[in-house]
Design a protein that fits this description.
Jelly Rolls, methionine biosynthesis, binds nickel (II) ion, binds fe (ii) ion, RmlC_Cupin_sf, globular, dioxygenase, two-stranded antiparallel ribbon, eight-stranded antiparallel beta sheet, 10 strands, single chain, binds the ligand CSCCC(=O)/C(O)=C/O, alpha+beta
Length: 182
Amino acid sequence: MKGMQWGSASTHTAAEDPVALLANLGVVWEALALPEHPEALALLARPTLDALEQEALLRALDPVFHPLQAERGYRERDLVVLYPEHPDLETLDRRFGGIHRHDDEEVRYIVDGEGVFGFVLDDGRQLELTVEAGDYLHIPAGVEHWFRLNGLRRIKAVRYFSARGGWVPVYSDTPQQQFPHA
Ligand SMILES: CSCCC(=O)/C(O)=C/O
Ligand SMILES: [Fe+2]
Ligand code: NI
């Protein structure tokens, strides 16, 4: 994790551990080392990947996927590749930038770049985590969260699914607090 920040209306103490607070919601954040796989590292260094390159990268990352498949029952995986020139960046920003939840778990393994996941805690406070390559995030169904790109405007993340389509955003009317955007 690259860092975290609290929402403007979320009083907190320095002693509070955001990962522990998120664990109360069932959110799992873990550091999961990227495989030392020369082909994967070469593909990860590319700004964009075509369909064949994405599949090659997913196969190279299967040593991470297979244990998750056995342990947590994920059946499929695909790749999100966002970069400054991506044609749908604004649409995706709007789609995921608002507070939402999903009817299925949201499981993301960040393999390149950075992104910001925000959460509404069970006491209503809000915080953001800046995630980076090697971060594994599991958001249970129903947890209110959001996602935005940071100034880097670049991320590659593997999405793991038990069932497809259950993670369409269901928007919440919880007002989103202000976060000082670095
Ligand atoms: C980096 S994954 C893209 C964002 C996404 O899938 C989601 O649901 C965010 O909440
Ligand atoms: Fe989401
Ligand atoms: Ni503080």
